[in-house]
Amino acid sequence: MTTETTHTGGIHERVTALLEERLGLLPEEVTRDAKFKEDLGLDSLDMVELLTLVETETGQDVDDGTAPSMATVGDVIDYLAAHGGGDAT
């Protein structure tokens, strides 16, 4: 049985690995509270790539109203947890 903490922990690991691999970030930089633009230095192109990856993980389009609210790593983790992302290996 998977608990919510275990589930979101697994998603956090995947998001962290993705950001490290794609953007060259260090693991200690990718915290739940890290803001994509201010703390991690993502530009608009990086954000489009991140949203594309979120859509791939969930199999759903991220609507225009939701995308701007994803300002932190935690926002993406919570979105993936709520929309079924992170279940595939």
UniProtKB/TrEMBL annotation:
InterPro entries to which the protein is assigned, alphabetical: ACP, ACP-like_sf, PP-bd_ACP, Ppantetheine_attach_site
Record keywords: Cytoplasm, Fatty acid biosynthesis, Fatty acid metabolism, Lipid biosynthesis, Lipid metabolism, Phosphopantetheine, Phosphoprotein
Spans traversing the lipid bilayer: none
Modifications after synthesis and translation: 4'-phosphopantetheine is transferred from CoA to a specific serine of apo-ACP by AcpS. This modification is essential for activity because fatty acids are bound in thioester linkage to the sulfhydryl of the prosthetic group.
Localization per record: Cytoplasm
PTM annotation (O-(pantetheine 4'-phosphoryl)serine): residues: 44
Carrier domain boundaries: 9-84
Biological or metabolic pathway of the protein: Lipid metabolism; fatty acid biosynthesis
Biological function: Carrier of the growing fatty acid chain in fatty acid biosynthesis.
Family to which this protein belongs: Belongs to the acyl carrier protein (ACP) family.
NCBIfam families according to UniProt: acyl_carrier
Name of the featured protein: Acyl carrier protein
Organism: Streptomyces iconiensis
Higher taxonomy: Bacteria, Bacillati, Actinomycetota, Actinomycetes, Kitasatosporales
Gene: acpP
